[in-house]
Known about the structure:
49% of the residues lie in helices and 9% in strands. The protein is an alpha/beta fold. The strands form three sheets. It has a four-stranded parallel β-sheet with strand order 4-5-8-9, covered by helices on one side. A three-stranded parallel β-sheet has the order 1-2-3.
Amino acid sequence: MASFLTDDFLLRSEPARRLxxxxxxxxxxxxxxxxxxxxxxxxxxxxxxxxxxxxxxxxYKWRAMRANGVDxxxxxxxxxxxxxxLAWARTVPKTMGNPLYHWTHLELKRYFGVDExxxxxxxxxxxxxxxxxxxxxxxxxxxxxxxxxxxVVCTTEDPSDDLRHHAAYFRRPGDPVxxxxxxxxxxxxxxxxxxxxxYIKTLEAASSVAIGSFATLVRALESRxxxxxxxxxxxxxxxxxxxxxxxxxxxxxxxxxxxxxxxxALDPDEAEAFQxxxxxxxxxxxxxxxxxxxLHLGAIRNLxxxxxxxxxxxxxxxxxxxxxxxxxxxKFLDLMAQDGPLPRLILYTLNPAWNEVLASIAGCxxxxxxxxxxxxxxxxxxxxxxxxxxxxxxxLAHFGLLSRFVGMLTDSRSFxxxxxxxxxxxxxxxxxxxxxxxxxxxxxxxxxxGLVRDVxxxxxxxAFNIPGVDPQ
Length: 472
């Protein structure tokens, strides 16, 4: 059976089709948040088969397979790669209505030219076709990125990472720029003082700073922040269940750090005060260097203890959180504003009920110094589907300026995930084209075509100012 992915997939009006084909389709990709392994980019890695490049590390697919009754042996266990792929092929028909159904077929079509529906009957031929292609020169990691017109790959690294793969990356003509994002979440994870102490030793080694106080902890982070900047980094990233917002004096922060360094646990208010102090310090570093600060809010992680013990973190056992959000976030942003100019901020929510809350708070901290300085980020994780993206885009348009939106990202561990940008762009054009078709916006190609191009690439290009990246 031929694929349903026509040239006009998701484009439900003539203006939408025109906006996509004339403006969005040819735009390059600036992917400013992913979890791709930098070693594989630097080494221009290759993959032996479709399972290795497509299923390994993809907890979206793992969750769907578990929901379909697939044994863990065929997901993350010891089954052969082909057995894992066949288990996925049997699952795909059951994912109708899930974005995985669309993503799966977009990826097969865009990378491999496969225009068939994946199911148990077609699995063998698709496996063979894709594996033959993967053995060809045009299917190395960098070639795959070039084929999707990826200009920037932003990986996510801990401050203690030595960035050796970024340093070793020799960029040839046409290769994307690869930069690291600064993610200091482990510093904030102080519930287990012994594990925190172990991490401090790692940070000391990376920064060449002996950490014996809050001041020296900040100095160590500053040293690594500078190293990330030298490697092209222009964004920090923070995964928070809720925003800490307890103000503490310098003396108190020193006392709390001393307590942790002695292996003593902080009570909840003390922990939140310490976390607030660290995040404010990183915010100041970001503002001083012209970076963007990304707050990913509202995930509760690793809910299944037996699964975590068996498989480790980030294996598909996270969910939407529902902690108090508005007041702590507003207070934290206000504290940072009192420290000095805010860095550029992107606020992501895993809980779609918070879209309007975050968008309204963002508007309170715009200061007129640059367009879209504080904004609601793209539909994230569980929201990265048609309804979630539509809700995020329309909320942003209603509460802020869609025309200043920095757009889509993959948030992915897979080198085959970049058609998600196409998915987003088609929906964006369908929304804007729908406004034209309904008489809610002028049929002005220069105005609305420009908006589409800006959201697809130009806004991110200007906002992040990443060295070595070309305009469209």
